[in-house]
Every structure is written in C-alpha cells, then in structure tokens.
Design brief:
Elements: H1 14-26, H2 31-40, H3 47-75, E1 80-90, E2 93-102, E3 107-113, H4 118-132, E4 137-140, H5 144-153, E5 159-161, H6 167-172, H7 174-190
Parallel strand pairs: 1-4, 4-5
Antiparallel strand pairs: 1-2, 2-3
Helix pairs in contact: 1-3, 2-3, 4-5
C-alpha cells in the first residue's frame, strides 16, 4: 500500500509550502513578513495561508526533522543518554517525572510514574529504547533503580554514574521548574 502525499489537494507546490513553513518556524518572522518575502520572490499568497500551512504541515516537518536527527545521532560514536528523575506535583499529588536527554541536551523522552522503583525505571528504559534504539553510554545519578533496571535489560556495563556527570539532565529540568515556580506565584496572588 502506497502512502498518499499530504500535499495532494493543494494547488501550490510542496516546495513552496515547505519554504513558507520553514521560514516562519526557523526565523523570527511574523506571518506577514513571510508573506512579504514570498511576494518578493513572485509567490502571491496570504498570511492566513501561511498560518494554515504551518498548522497543517508544521508537526509533520518537525517529526521528520526529529527522525533524521535521531538516525544521525545513532551513527555518532558517542551516543549518550543522560537519565534523571524529579518530583512534580500534579493536582496536589507527588509524582516522579523521568527524563532522558541526549548528549546535546535534547529531551528524548519523558515519563510520569507514582513510584521511583526498579519497575518504573525498567518501563521508562524499555519505552525509550524502543523508540530510539540502544545508546552507547547511559549516564545516571546514583539512584539504585537504574542499576537494577540495567541488569534486567543487560546494559549494566554501559552505565556511568557520578556526582557531576549528569548535569546535562539536571539542566534540562530548569525550564520545567521555572514554569512550576511561576504557577506557584500565580496561585499565591489569589490568596
């Protein structure tokens, strides 16, 4: 079964649609700026058309870029993951947010559980490995759940632990913590 083109009912060529969406996403341009730049190139479209294309094709282009990036990273000789977990409150209940970050700081996977044990770590590792394949090295903090899960998977020789080795994963939590603090500030204002 052949996959149908997502551009099949559009009069504009896929190259122009891709160019308009990439210009809007990649550069800090408004929809009207993208419309003006394309008008200078002889392409007469509305800014609403660019917005429609961005809504329709943006996620598809993003997943394509992510897929290509991951395939390139797997070939990289030092494909490392940094794993970490933090406590978060969801509706007043404490949960654990497990995160996997690659050696460039891109968040690969996030997973929320009630507990922080071997079973949760194993499920998180299997989910991440199913999507991205096996890494060359996994850097973790000193949580014992990772070691127990690695023994089950058979990856314990690829695990590195240390106090300062996992800073990449720790730094990836900062935007989440900033949002969390902002929400607390907002809640205090009501009181």
């Amino acid at each position: 079964m052949t996959k149908r083109s997502p551009f099949r009912y559009f009069k504009t060529s896929p190259e122009i649609i891709r160019l308009a969406v990439m210009m809007y996403v990649r550069f800090p341009l408004s929809l009207r700026n993208v419309e003006d730049l394309l008008h200078e190139r002889g392409i007469d479209i509305s800014h609403e058309t660019v917005r429609f294309w961005w809504n329709r094709f943006g996620p598809m282009f993003a997943s394509e870029i992510r897929r290509n990036r991951i395939s390139r990273m797997r070939a990289y000789s030092n494909w490392q993951w940094h794993l970490d977990e933090i406590f978060v409150k969801i509706n007043g209940e404490t949960h654990d947010l497990w995160r996997a970050v690659d050696h460039e700081g891109q968040v690969l996977e996030s997973y929320v559980t009630k507990r922080r044990d071997r079973k949760a770590a194993l499920k998180f590792l299997r989910k991440t490995m199913k999507r991205y394949g096996r890494p060359h090295v996994i850097v973790t903090d000193l949580l014992r759940s990772y070691g127990a899960a690695m023994k089950v998977i058979g990856n314990e020789d690829k695990q590195e632990t240390g106090r300062w080795l996992n800073n990449r994963a720790e730094n990836s939590h900062l935007p989440f913590r900033r949002r969390e603090r902002a929400m607390l500030r907002f809640r205090r204002m009501r009181r």
